[in-house]
Design goal:
The N and C termini lie far apart (55 Å). 6% of the residues lie in helices and 57% in strands. The protein has helices spanning 2-18, 60-65, 72-78, 142-145, 417-421, and strands at residues 56-59, 82-85, 92-95, 105-108, 111-112, 133-137, 153-157, 164-172, 176-187, 190-201, 205-209, 212-216, 221-233, 237-251, 263-280, 283-300, 305-324, 328-343, 350-363, 369-380, 384-397, 402-413, 433-448, 451-473, 476-499, 504-521, 539-549, 552-561, 579-592, 595-604, 612-614, 617-618, 623-632. The protein has 634 residues and is mostly beta strands. The longest helix is centred in the first third of the chain and has 17 residues, at 2-18. The radius of gyration is 24 Å and the shape is globular. It has a 22-stranded antiparallel barrel. A five-stranded mixed β-sheet has the order 1-6-7-4-5.
């Protein structure tokens, strides 16, 4: 019966979105105006609807609506991507289109945040209030930002905003307590910004396990984050620098099978990203300089575990963009990167050197047609040479009413240091992983009196050769190459925005994704062939409704996650159950002259369902979150 209700809900939303003309009678002549913003995640310097692949973009205002926690919640509620959650205070990683989190790049201000040791980035480390805009591009290629793009790219921009000053306090269930400030000031060509956020949350909650009520404790999180922006911008010259410091202490309760009352992880890092640009005529010269010093310490007294890791990274990218004859753009750069790793988990200190050269181009032979190409050469000290490439096209028919687009790419994934050197499990003989993937899509945009309707459907397919896979065997945990892994699927996204009057607007979104991801050739373990990859649901659905009336906002988010297997041969009798979570949210803005006071409230998991995305890591039931924000615009 729950399945029928869910399908009915999405069918209703689908019909509403597909036939926007049913609601036109109530709309007015006012139109919704959308600012054209150049996409950064693909390195093709053009707007979202002109890209060869699907790009999902979120603004700072949308991030603000989802509270003051990490960026993971907005991604999980409003996109086709999957967040692999380990519960409050635990790890949250990003997976797109069936690829593991280590195959999805997380890029912050042109710096790849993926850890060179384990290959992933924990999204809980990045406060949502530090982000000005965020882009997801699942079809992105390695030609943009290098290794690990098989599953796409998440691009985070924390550049400076216009002059404004704000502070906030968030309180919620399970002792959640977050506060912070944003101070941004512009004066002529100069700007500076300071953001601070502190969290001290207990995160202990009750859950049902085999019919018994248990308490999930040892979950406390204490964090302190600082972000500093400064820059100078004129017509020919631009200097921008951003410093990000964080100090995070996470208690780690472990899984239900192997719980811990003494495990603690400490993460500390100082990262800086500097961009220098000089523009003249139709050219742009630039340099991106990044430095990072990050510590991760894990201790568990009960199991006598003590692990310390320090990673120092430095990179410099020097590039040149050029507009040729009005219809051809090129963007090329050379970059070197050095990682130095000191870890108690390795027999000796390890280092990684990477040199890369890339060339991306966009050619517009006619008003409606755009052709894209990219090529990249990488040299990795630990993996050797690699060449990546992509070709794509965008054909715009009938003034955005029908846009056909697609891209094919060859990508490269270098083994991480854990893959190579983890004690008693790493494999120094691993081959680099290569990936070929393609995306074909249709985008349709209709603007009508007082509204805007957008429909998008994308088919995708990819093949990984020599896929790097961690497995449990008779001798414990190990990593090896798998001959071939295939992923394929279909994404549907619909959005309808209506402006009934100057005071009343309504936005409705719905989306579904089908993913078939499996090992198709494995000489070492033929029994694993054909099964769905672990923690990859075949079906996922989402819906979002947002109603704005004067200074009030109210809405709901619904997310359905399908069954997930926990073993590669799918031998477990029962996969993890599918589940649906419904959130309600509301916000009131009280503008007073140049001041703004707002109160945002959110109810998470309204149905109080007992869920686990990762086996042995329960998620909370119903919870509440309230944020009070005070702002001033000079």
């Amino acid at each position: 019966m729950k399945y029928l209700s869910l399908q009915t809900l999405f069918a209703t939303l689908f019909l509403y979105l597909i036939f926007p003309q049913l609601t036109q009678a109530q709309s007015v002549a006012d139109t919704l105006t959308l600012e054209e913003i150049t996409v950064q995640s693909t390195r093709f310097d053009t707007e979202r609807e002109n890209q060869p692949i699907s790009v999902t973009r979120f603004t700072a205002d949308e991030l603000e609506l989802y509270g003051t926690g990490s960026i993971a919640e907005l991604i999980g509620k409003r996109s086709s991507a999957m967040i692999r959650e380990y519960g409050p205070g635990g790890l949250s990683t990003l997976s797109m289109r069936g690829y593991s989190p280590g195959r999805t790049q997380v890029v912050w201000n042109n710096f790849n945040l993926n850890d060179p040791v384990n290959g992933v980035f924990d999204l809980t480390l990045m406060p949502s209030n530090f982000i000005r805009s965020m882009e997801l591009s699942a079809g992105n290629s390695s030609t943009a930002y290098g290794s690990s793009a098989a599953g796409g790219t998440l691009y985070l921009d924390s550049g400076a905003a216009s002059s404004n000053y704000s502070g906030w306090q968030t309180l919620g269930s399970y002792g959640q307590n977050i506060q912070g400030i944003n101070l941004n000031h512009r004066s002529g060509s100069w700007y500076a910004g300071l953001s601070l956020q502190r969290e001290a949350s207990d995160n202990d909650f009750e859950f049902e396990n085999n019919g018994e009520t248990q308490t999930r404790d040892n979950n406390r999180v204490e964090t302190f984050n600082v972000l500093v922006n400064a820059g100078y911008e004129t017509e020919p010259l631009s200097l921008k620098t951003t410093l990000w410091f964080y100090d995070v202490e996470n208690q780690s309760p472990g899984s239900l099978s192997f719980p811990s009352q003494t495990a603690v992880q400490n993460d500390r890092a100082l990262r800086s990203a500097t961009n220098i640009e000089y523009r003249f005529d139709n050219s742009r010269l630039y340099s991106n300089i990044v430095y990072s010093d990050a510590d991760t310490d894990y201790t568990d007294e009960a199991f006598a575990i003590e692990s310390e890791t320090n990673i120092k990274s430095f990179s410099n990218e020097i590039g040149w963009s050029q507009q040729w004859l009005g219809n051809l753009k090129t963007d090329q750069s050379a970059r070197f990167l050095v990682n130095r790793v000191e870890s108690s988990n390795f027999e000796q200190n390890e280092s990684q050197f990477n040199f890369a050269y890339r060339l991306n181009s966009e050619w517009q032979p006619g008003e409606s047609l755009r052709l894209f190409a990219g090529v990249r050469y990488d040299y990795y000290e630990t993996a050797g040479d690699a060449v990546s490439g992509s070709i794509g096209a965008n054909y715009n028919l009938f003034d955005d009413a029908l846009i056909l687009r697609g891209q094919w790419s060859r990508n490269f994934v270098a083994p991480t240091l854990n893959d190579l050197y983890w004690p008693d499990a790493g494999n120094p003989e691993l081959k680099p992983e290569t990936n070929q993937k393609g995306e074909l899509g249709i985008l349709s945009i209709h603007e009508y009196g007082g509204g805007r309707f957008e429909a998008e459907i994308n088919g995708f397919a990819g093949t990984q050769t020599d896929g790097i896979l961690w497995v449990f065997g008779q001798n414990g945990l190990s990593v090896r190459n798998v001959n071939e892994i295939e992923t394929r699927g279909l994404e549907l996204s619909l959005k309808n925005e209506l402006q009934f009057s100057s005071d009343l607007t309504l936005s409705v979104e719905a989306g579904s994704i089908y993913t078939d991801a499996s090992i198709t050739d494995d000489e070492s373990n033929p029994g694993a062939e054909g099964g769905q990859l672990v923690y990859v649901p075949e079906w996922s659905h989402r819906a979002h409704l947002n109603l704005n009336w004067r200074n009030f906002t109210a809405g709901t988010d619904i997310r359905y996650t399908g069954e997930r297997y926990t073993t590669q041969d799918n031998s477990q009798t029962e996969p993890l159950s599918s589940f649906t979570e419904t959130d309600l949210f509301g916000r009131i803005n009280l503008p007073i002259y140049r001041y703004r006071v707002s109160i945002t409230a959110r109810v998470r998991n309204l149905g109080d369902s007992q869920n686990q995305f990762i086996n042995g890591y329960p998620l909370p039931g119903r919870s509440y979150l309230v944020t009070a924000r005070f702002g001033f615009n000079p």
